[in-house]
Amino acid sequence: MPEDQDTRTVLSDEELRTLDAHWRAANYLAAGQIYLLANPLLTEPLRPEHIKPRLLGHWGTSPGLNLVYTHLNRVITARGLDALCIWGPGHGGPSVLANSWLEGSYSATYPDVGRDATGMERLFRQFSFPGGVPSHVAPEVPGSIHEGGELGYSLAHAYGAALDNPGLLVACVIGDGEAETGPLAASWHSNKLLDPVHDGAVLPILHLNGYKIANPAVLARLPEPELDALLRGYGHEPLHVSGDDPAVVHRALARAMDTALARIAEAQRAARDDGASERVRWPVIVLRTPKGWTGPAEVDGKPVEGTWRAHQVPLSGVRDNPEHLRQLEAWLKSYRPEELFDGSGRPVADVLACVPEGARRLGSTPRANGGLLLRGLPMPSLDDFAVPVDKPGTTLHEPTRILGDLLERIMRDTADRRDFRLVGPDETASNRLQAVYDASGKAWQATVLDSDEHLDRHGRVMEILSEHLCQGWLEGYLLTGRHGLFSCYEAFVHIVDSMVNQHIKWLRTSRELSWRAPIASFNYLLTSHVWRQDHNGFSHQDPGFVDHVLNKSTDVVRVYLPPDANTLLSVADHALRSRDYVNVIVAGKQPCYDWLSIDEARVHCARGAGIWEWAGTENGGEPDVVLGCAGDVPTQEVLAAAQLLRRHLPELAVRVVNVVDIARLLPHGEHPHGMTDFEYDGLFTTDKPVIFAYHGYPWLIHRLAYRRNGHPHLHVRGYKESGTTTTPFDMVVRNDLDRYRLVMDVIDRVPGLAVRAAAVRQRMADARSRHHAWIREYGTDLPEVAEWSWNA
């Protein structure tokens, strides 16, 4: 036994016997789910008709997960712990479902799947079966907050769950394959931001069974000293458990868990009672057991147990191959189900000896149904933060800086309850949100230098240069009943495209489960956006996250493009109060004209899209042309174009329509926020030219509005992948979104203007030429652009 392990843990023979009984029962149930349609207790000889027609599932990881679940039950019961477990190995569904059923959590959630023979048969039948449940750990599984379908995020989710949960232990099982992903590799550094005073503890359990689908696992092939050195370099203290003899492994894992929990408890006591400030070196358990342990050792003359062949379905021809059927029956009977379940199919007392009671069961913890614990944020009045707007376009503010003041108040007002976090990849101050530092510093447990600013051992602002970790932390935080916001440069939020996919899928499925309570929405603030990344260049210019998100479930996604500071306040207030959504807010951090008062902003944002009468020249009549806009820079260019039209073509009736909620452009039947045809036609008309200036890729607007009556008359300008390091106005010129081009578009599309306004069009083209010459000589924008202001 290694010297650093707790020598006091010695399982009695009785404890070993009951732990092993629980583990065998879970293994039996996991295998049964993969194979059986009927005859769940093998009360009659196994026949082909008892077998599912399509065999789906993953056996290889199941015995290891069952082992961990069994031993977590033991320590939860013995120590009276509140615990949550994140099950990282992809398709580990059979194990978590099996253990949830054994402990009674599954039947409490789904009464039709009782803890008896009938319920066992339903448990088996529904797994990976049409109308049933997925093969991975999903929202349908009680006790889960982590979707097992995509690998890489388990440890980040675990840390997010532990934040501001000082009484919670979050175990996290990390599989061989997941351990090779980039997000997981970065997640090991989360321990440098975990506060032993106000946060709970994370116990990573690196489960190495040697293989992925068809290849060896990198970490599993490292010699133990090298792996040990790697984990110590990450700041952990490893505890190694390995073997293939169940009795030996049971004793070793029990010893390792007790050692780990004793160290965690001592570290928390020292920090909380003695004021210890040294960074904690948290324990990690490295568990090495064979892949497909206790399953068939050999099939068709080829080794299976302990190899990659055990990954999914070890015996694939059971319905057609009598030898496979015989092997399956022998395998299932090797667990001695007659000792584990009584005549009615109920687990016997020995199997349940280690299982916790009530809400301490892993499948029943309210932390895995965070909406049950969620409290509304103490949202202050927006009047306290709004900028005064006596007339449109006469004052300038940095919208995100104004939002930062609101977030600072929220952070301050949640100081005692600690249920709000701001996360971002090293960009809080860059994104003008630094006011939050007056209420909370940045979480940090590592070395602090005299030159550092705003670092705080107990801080609730989370910064790390990994968008994956920011996303994963906040998902774990929200799913366990808290609130937050993710601030990110617009171009680089794409790094988490796949992660947001998974979260959206989780929310959509959760909405269909009556027992899952709504959680706080995941709120993105995308700033440092495409139109004001002129100094950083092409690599920082990409507005496509909105397109990505709007491809997803319309029940879940919301996208807002507030054009000024007060509309940003209104949108943020709505998003932070909302539940079960993914809200994407795109707003600039550079000085921007103020267009609407806070009362006007509230009304406009509630409407989602509306006519700005003060900006147009309709005078109560029908417009000749509609100028639409969505986004802060496009709005300014449209207003500048409207001003030019007012000056050069005063007889033209111009309508200006601003869109804040981009989903308003969709038909009402396609999105809850979509407009009816009557509403849309009222704003944009059915037969007049519409020149639409959009923040992102122009074809998105066409896609949203393609079925509208006026779509043949819709012309959209936006970002068309023309970027570089240049001036702010040159960015819009390069992409034909500038005011001069918009005026030219009006002249080109309003009947009769092509000839009548040819001279005006020529002036606009000349202005663009002057712009090109000017910036190349002076390196700044034309004075008429740089010094422009709204003057109607």
Automatic annotation (TrEMBL):
Coiled-coil stretches noted in the UniProt entry, renumbered to this chain: none
Domain Xylulose 5-phosphate/Fructose 6-phosphate phosphoketolase C-terminal: 589-790
Span of domain Xylulose 5-phosphate/Fructose 6-phosphate phosphoketolase N-terminal: 11-372
EC number: 4.1.2.-
UniProt superkingdom: Bacteria
InterPro entries: Phosphoketolase, THDP-binding, Transketo_C/PFOR_II, Xul5P/Fru6P_PKetolase, Xul5P/Fru6P_PKetolase_C, Xul5P/Fru6P_PKetolase_CS, Xul5P/Fru6P_PKetolase_N, Xul5P/Fru6P_PKetolase_ThDP_BS
Keyword Thylakoid attached: no
Keyword Lyase assigned: yes
Keywords: Lyase, Thiamine pyrophosphate
Gene3D superfamilies, alphabetized: 3.40.50.920, 3.40.50.970
Pfam family, one: XFP
Cofactor needs: thiamine diphosphate
Family: Belongs to the XFP family.
NCBIfam families: PRK05261.1-2, PRK05261.1-4, PRK05261.1-6
Stated name of the protein: Probable phosphoketolase
Organism, as annotated: Streptomyces marokkonensis
Organism ancestry: Bacteria, Bacillati, Actinomycetota, Actinomycetes, Kitasatosporales
